[in-house]
Amino acid sequence: MDKEEKPQTSPHVLIFPLPTQGNVNSMLKLAELLALAGLNLTFLNSDFIHEQLVTPMLFPDSSNMWDSNSGLYRMVSRTGIPEQPRVDCIIADGGLGIAVDVAEEVGIPVIQFRAISACCIWAFYAVPNMIQAGELPIKGKEDMDRLITNIPGMETFLRCRDLPSFCRVMDSTLQRTAKDARKNFHGHGLVLNTFEDLEGDTLSHMRTKSPNIYTVGPLHLHLRTRLFDSNRTLFNQSSNNVHEVDRSCLSWLDKQPKGSVVYVSFGSIAVLSSEQVFEFWFGLVNSGKRFLWVLRPGIMPEKGDEGNNIPVELIKGTKERGCIVSWAPQEEVLGHGAIGGFLTHSGSNSTLESVVEGVPMICWPYFADQQINSRFVSQVWGLGLDMKDLCDRHIVEKMVNDLMVERRDEFLKSATKMAKLAGQCVNVGGSSYCNLDRLVEDIKSMNISLGK
Predict the structure, then answer these.
(1) What is the rounded distance in angstroms from the CA atom of residue 380 to the CA atom of residue 175?
(2) Coiled coil located at which positions (predicted)?
(3) Span 164-177, pLDDT tens digits
C-alpha cells in the first residue's frame, strides 16, 4: 500500500494484521487513514487470507496461518530484504504476540492495534485478578448469573454468562488471553477501533495502566469522513470480503417501507446447527416482520434436502416478507432507510457499524469478545436486547417485536443519540479525529528521535 509522491523523510510503517476478515478490514481502514496523512505504508498479508480475498469461500488451514520463520524478521531487521524500505515503526495486531516480540527484538518501535472493544480488552486484562479471587474458572451452569466483581468499572452488571466460554475452564486459552491483554499495554501505544463517548468509562480505567491509548474509531466512518473532506473516493469494500457479496438485497430493501426490516447476520465465523437455523427462522417468520437474512453457505441445510426439511410455512413466510442471501454489503445495508433493527452476533465491527447508522440491536453472541459486547449493548448503552445463551423461536419472535414495536421508541432514541456522537468524534476537532492526528505525529516523532 505504498503511496507515490511521499517525502523521503516520511516514516515507513509496517502494518501486521491478525488474519481474519474483521481484523484485516479494520487494519486496512487504519492503513488508508495513515496513508492519507502522508505516511509510507506496507501492509503485511498472509498467503491464506490473500487467497480468501481473491478467491472467496476458501477456508484456512490454521497450522499455516503464520510462519514464524517467514519474511517478517528479515523485513524489519537491519539485514532485511534489500529492495524493501527500512521499517521505522510497526503497527501490529495485539492478538499476534510474534509481531510484538520481533519488533522488540530488533529494536523497532511497536504500536499495538486491537479490533475488539475496549471493554473486552479490559475484562481480559483482569483475568488474573478474577482467577486469584476465585471467580474463574466458572464452575457450572448454576453459576452463570453470578456477578463478576474483579473487573474495575463492571462490578455491578457483568455476570459469568457475559464472559467468553473459555473462561469456564482453566486451560492455555484462558492464560494466553490474559497474557496477550496485559501485553497490549506495553510498547509505544495502543490503537483502538472505538470512540470516547461509547467506552469512556472503560477507557479511563485502562489509562491507569497505559496512558497512551489512541481511540480512532469508528474506523469505517472515520475513513469515509476524511476521504470526503479530501475529495477522494472510498475503495470498493466488496473486494475486502472473503465471501462473494450479493447486492440484490439492496434492490429488495428499496421496495420495503422505512424502518420495517430486521437485518440478520451472524458474521463470517459463527456456525449454527440446523436446529438453531430453524429456531431463528420460525421466530422471524412468526414475528410477522420483514427480514433480510445472511445465511452463509454451510450454515443452511443441504440443498438436496431443502424440499423435505423446510416446513411450508417458512417457505411461504419468507416469500411474503423475507429475503435470504449468502452475503450482504453490510455497511450499505445498515445505512439503508428500510432497516429498523439488527439481529447480530455482536462482533465489534458489526456493533460499531450498527451504532454509526443508529440501528438498535438484538444480540446473539457466539464467542470471544461478543458476549461482553452484547451485555454492554443492552445493559450499559441501552441500544438493544441481549439474547445470549438462548435459541428459541418464541424468544426470537418476542425480541423482534420488542425491538421493532413495543420498545422501538426507547431503543431508537438511544441509538440515534449514539450515532450522532459517533459522527461528531470523527469530524474536525472530535476525539477520534484528534487522536488520529496525534498518532501520526507520534509516529513521525519516533522517526526523528531515532535518527532515521
Answers:
(1) 27
(2) none
(3) 888 877 777 788 88
The residues near 110 (Cβ < 8 Å, ≥ 6 apart) are 89, 90, 91, 92, 99, 100, 103, 104, 187, 188
Q: Kindly report which listed range (16-20, 124-128, 197-201) carries the lowest average pLDDT score.
A: 16-20
| Helix residue spans in 4-117 (DSSP H) | 21-36, 47-54, 71-76, 97-106
| Residues 101 and 31 both lie in one domain | yes
Tell me, what CATH number does 194's domain have? 3.40.50.2000
Q: Which residue has the cell 496525534?
A: 438
Same domain, 156 and 211: no
159 with 45, same domain? no
Are 195 and 50 in a shared domain? Answer: yes
Average pLDDT, the chain: 86
C-alpha distances out from residue 328 to 198, 235, 276, 351, Å = 26, 17, 21, 16
283 and 359 share one domain: yes
Tell me whether residue 6 is exposed, middle or buried, using C-beta atoms within 10 angstroms of its C-beta: 0 to 12, 13 to 18, 19 or more.
middle
List the grid coordinates of 263: 437485518
Give the pLDDT confidence score for residue 64 in this predicted structure.
Answer: 41
What domain range includes position 26? 12-115+185-217+426-449
Contacts of 4 (CB under 8 A, 6+ apart): none
Burial tier of 303 (Cβ tally within 10 Å: 0-12, 13-18, 19+): exposed
Number of domains making up the chain: 3
Burial 242-261 (b: 16+ CB within 10 A, else e): bbebeeebbeebeebeeebb
Q: Quick one: which of 103, 102, 123, 127 has its CA closest to 114?
A: 123
Retrieve residue 64's grid coordinates: 499455516
Express each pLDDT in 80-104 by its tens digit: 555 667 889 999 999 887 778 888 8
